[in-house]
C-alpha cells in the first residue's frame, strides 16, 4: 500500500505537492469514488484516475543519458525532430528531468518518477550542474568574477556560480570555460556568458550533482543504481534544510 499522492507523483502526473492539491480539489478518484483526504493509501489493484484519466503505475525508473547535439529534451515533437526518447529501448514511459537546449550536449537524467524529478529541478534543492562552454572570446578574471557573483537576467540576479578557465586560444580568440550553477533558467548558461561579452559556441553539461558521463558516448544511456538515486534525494533534501537555516 502506498499513499495516493506518492502514486500520482511516481506516475509522472505531477510533483507530490501538486498531487496533494489535486486530491483536495476533488480531481482524483479511487475505484470511482472521489477522494479529497490526504493520507489515503491505495494498493496495486485499486483504479486511480486523475481528472477522469486512469494512471498507469510502473516501477520507478531512473536513467543517465548522454544527450547528443540537435536533439530535443522532449518525448515527442510535432515537427518530427529527434527527441531524447528516440534513443531508449525501455518499457517504462520516461521523460527528461529538466532540459538541455537543442544544440547543447551532455548529461540528462530521465525518469518516470514525478516526485524525484521535482527534487532535482526545483531551485530550492540547489542541485549543482557543471557545464563546459566554448566561448568566442577570452574572458578576463574580472568577467569570470561577474559570473561567480551573479549577473542580471530578465531583472533577476543569478545565484553565485563557480568558474574555471580551462584553456584559451589567443589566435582564434576562443576559450574553454567550466561553470557550475544550481539553477536552471531558460538558456541560462548561454545568457550568462552573453552578459559578459563571451558568446557561447558550444555547450556541454558534464555533471549533475555527483554524477558524470563516465564512458558513455553520445546517444548512450545507463540505469542509475539504488545508491545513486538515494544519494541524489539526500543531497536535495539536505540542501533544502541548509537553505532554511
From TrEMBL:
SUPFAM superfamilies: Alpha-L RNA-binding motif, Pseudouridine synthase
Spans traversing the lipid bilayer: none
RNA-binding S4 domain: residues covered: 2-65
Broad enzyme group: isomerase
InterPro entries: PsdUridine_s_RsuA/RluB/E/F_cat, PsdUridine_synth_cat_dom_sf, PsdUridine_synth_RsuA/RluA, PsdUridine_synth_RsuA/RluB/E/F, PsdUridine_synth_RsuA/RluB_CS, RsuA_PseudoU_synthase, S4_RNA-bd, S4_RNA-bd_sf
Alphabetized UniProt keyword annotations: Isomerase, RNA-binding
Any one of the GO CC terms: cytosol
Pfam families per record: PseudoU_synth_2, S4
GO biological process terms on file: enzyme-directed rRNA pseudouridine synthesis
Record-listed E.C. numbers: 5.4.99.-
GO MF annotations in UniProt: RNA binding; rRNA pseudouridine synthase activity
NCBIfam families linked to this entry: pseudouridine synthase (TIGR00093)
Family designation: Belongs to the pseudouridine synthase RsuA family.
Protein name: Pseudouridine synthase
Lineage: Bacteria, Bacillati, Bacillota, Bacilli, Lactobacillales
Amino acid at each position: 500500500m502506498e499513499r495516493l499522492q506518492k502514486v500520482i507523483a511516481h506516475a509522472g502526473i505531477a510533483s507530490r505537492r501538486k498531487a496533494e492539491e489535486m486530491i483536495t480539489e476533488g480531481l482524483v478518484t479511487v475505484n470511482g469514488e472521489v477522494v479529497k483526504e490526504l493520507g489515503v493509501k491505495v494498493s496495486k489493484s485499486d483504479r486511480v484516475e486523475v481528472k477522469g484519466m486512469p494512471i498507469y503505475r510502473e516501477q520507478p525508473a531512473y536513467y543517465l543519458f548522454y544527450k547528443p547535439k540537435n536533439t530535443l529534451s522532449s518525448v515527442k515533437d510535432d515537427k518530427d525532430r529527434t527527441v531524447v526518447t528516440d534513443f531508449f529501448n525501455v518499457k517504462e514511459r520516461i521523460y527528461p528531468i529538466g532540459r538541455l537546449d537543442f544544440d547543447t550536449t551532455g548529461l540528462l537524467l530521465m525518469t518516470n518518477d514525478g516526485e524525484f524529478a521535482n527534487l532535482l529541478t526545483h531551485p530550492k534543492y540547489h542541485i549543482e550542474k557543471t557545464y563546459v562552454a566554448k566561448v568566442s572570446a577570452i574572458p578576463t578574471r574580472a568577467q569570470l568574477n561577474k559570473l561567480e557573483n551573479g549577473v542580471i537576467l530578465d531583472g533577476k540576479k543569478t545565484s553565485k556560480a563557480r568558474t574555471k578557465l580551462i584553456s584559451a586560444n589567443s589566435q582564434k580568440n576562443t576559450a574553454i570555460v567550466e561553470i557550475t550553477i544550481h539553477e536552471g533558467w531558460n538558456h541560462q548558461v548561454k545568457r550568462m556568458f552573453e552578459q559578459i561579452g563571451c558568446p557561447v559556441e558550444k555547450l556541454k553539461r558534464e555533471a549533475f550533482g555527483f554524477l558524470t558521463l563516465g564512458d558513455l558516448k553520445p546517444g548512450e544511456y545507463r540505469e542509475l543504481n539504488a545508491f545513486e538515486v538515494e544519494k541524489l534525494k539526500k543531497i536535495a533534501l539536505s540542501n533544502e534544510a541548509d537553505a532554511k537555516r
